[in-house]
Design a protein that fits this description.
Elements (H helix, E strand, L loop, with lengths): L1 H16 L5 H9 L9 E5 L5 E5 L4 H8 L5 E7 L5 E7 L2 H11 L7 E4 L5 H10 L4 E5 L2 H14 L4 E4 L12 E6 L8 H6 E10 L9 E6 L5 E6 L14 H5 L9 E5 L3 H5 L3 H10 L3 E6 L7 E7 L5 E6 L7 E6 L4 H14 L8 E8 L2 E8 L2
Parallel strand pairs: 5-6, 5-8, 6-7, 8-9
Antiparallel strand pairs: 1-2, 3-4, 9-10, 10-11, 11-17, 12-16, 13-14, 14-15, 15-16, 17-18
């Protein structure tokens, strides 16, 4: 079954890419069967916004179809302090894995650092492509590391796997010709910039508080900076070191706050709807601001909430269910978040609504971290 299933998966990936999978990646996917890296219970979308379990023993046909379908598969949940369960590890969509490996490029014999071992599948592919002795893979979760090591042994691929915080890189095996991350970042960790060689590549999914979308493909420059572009694919879990305390997001509205009130002609759906290019542009130009839709708000048919990551400023934009030319706005705190969003969206429109692939980032060291500047390709 695996040979036929892998062949069918390769066809799905090629259809998604709009081109055949490159020969070396086809060989890697055949040499590293995906099912070896999946747990006996997978969590599949239930069509209602949630997940439902799929057990290999009880539903073998469904489990195998999922294993060799071009879909992401949740493999682990983590319980939050309030009791909610959120996905904390997944097997990435195979076509996404291929896209990122294509962006990484490189050749056999080069040294590669992977951030986010997860199931171990991508580490095994890297080991096949670059040779195991040249690949180091990190994950902060010891349970995931143990399971990945077992899966890697069964696959015959044995890259170096370490339990460590990927945000710090892995100095013992540095420098690297390439760094690839299977978790998203909001800024490139300084150790990554320091541990990759000049001319080396960094490939990482990108995230903003506003929008989780896109993948940075950057090259380290001789001056120590990294420059690259954002590719229009990728939505991954945020690296743990850059996650915001969820309790701060619950503590935005407090007694005694008196927001400023106004109206706006900018539809909230323009900046928080289905236009991912607009959302990503806003996210990059209004840092640290997130949004949430509320269809059960008191006094409004539909409300868009905005707040900053530190819970010091917030805004709301209301739709009354009757007209759509003006919208009621409330803003509180040192940052006038809706005003910032309006300015960013105005720049987006003035720039002829650039797609994410026109966005360029320059990453440079600053203090104990990095900063990034955004510009547009001509």
């Amino acid at each position: 079954m695996p040979d036929a299933a892998i062949g069918a998966l390769l066809e799905q990936i090629a259809e998604r890419l709009g081109a055949p999978v490159p020969a070396q990646l086809r060989a890697a996917l055949r040499a590293v069967p995906r099912h070896l890296f999946l747990p006996s219970t997978l969590w599949l979308r239930d069509g209602k916004g949630g997940y439902e379990p799929c057990d290999r023993e009880r539903e073998p046909d469904r489990w195998w179809r999922a294993a060799y379908s071009d879909v992401p598969l949740v493999t682990q949940f983590t319980e939050l302090p309030d009791g909610d369960l959120v996905p904390s590890s997944s097997a990435s969509m195979p076509s996404m894995v291929v896209r990122m490996l294509m962006a990484l490029g490189g050749r056999r014999g080069q040294r590669v650092l992977e951030i986010g071992t997860g199931t171990g599948f991508n580490a095994a592919l890297l080991a096949h492509l670059f040779h195991a002795e040249n690949v180091t893979s990190l994950d902060i979760d010891p349970g995931l590391i143990r399971r990945a090591e077992r899966a890697l042994r069964s696959s015959g691929q044995r890259p170096e796997v370490r339990c460590a915080d990927g945000a710090a890189g892995w100095q013992p095996a540095a420098p690297y010709d390439a760094i690839i991350s299977t978790c998203s970042v909001r800024t490139v960790p300084l150790p990554w910039l320091e541990q990759v060689v000049a001319g080396g590549r960094i490939v990482t999914p990108w995230d903003t508080s506003w929008c989780n979308y896109g993948t940075l493909v950057a090259t380290k420059q001789a001056d120590g900076t990294a420059r690259g572009s954002l590719a229009p694919y990728g939505s991954f879990m945020l690296i743990r070191a850059q996650q915001v305390d969820v309790e701060l997001r619950r503590d935005v509205l407090r007694d005694g706050q008196h927001p400023e009130r106004s109206t706006t002609c900018l539809s909230p759906w323009s900046v928080a709807g289905n236009d991912l290019d607009a959302q990503m542009y806003v996210g990059l130009h209004v840092p640290g601001a997130w949004h949430s839709w509320d269809t059960e708000a008191e006094g409004a048919h539909t409300r868009l909430w905005l707040a900053d990551d530190q819970a010091t400023s917030w805004a709301s934009v209301d739709y009354d269910g009757r007209q759509a030319s003006t919208f009621a706005v409330a803003q509180y705190g040192a940052r006038k978040l809706w005003d910032e969003v309006v300015r960013a969206y105005g720049q987006y429109v003035a720039a002829d609504r650039p797609g994410i692939d026109r966005l360029r980032l320059r990453v440079s060291a600053e203090g104990q971290g990095t900063r990034h500047e955004v510009c547009l390709s001509t």
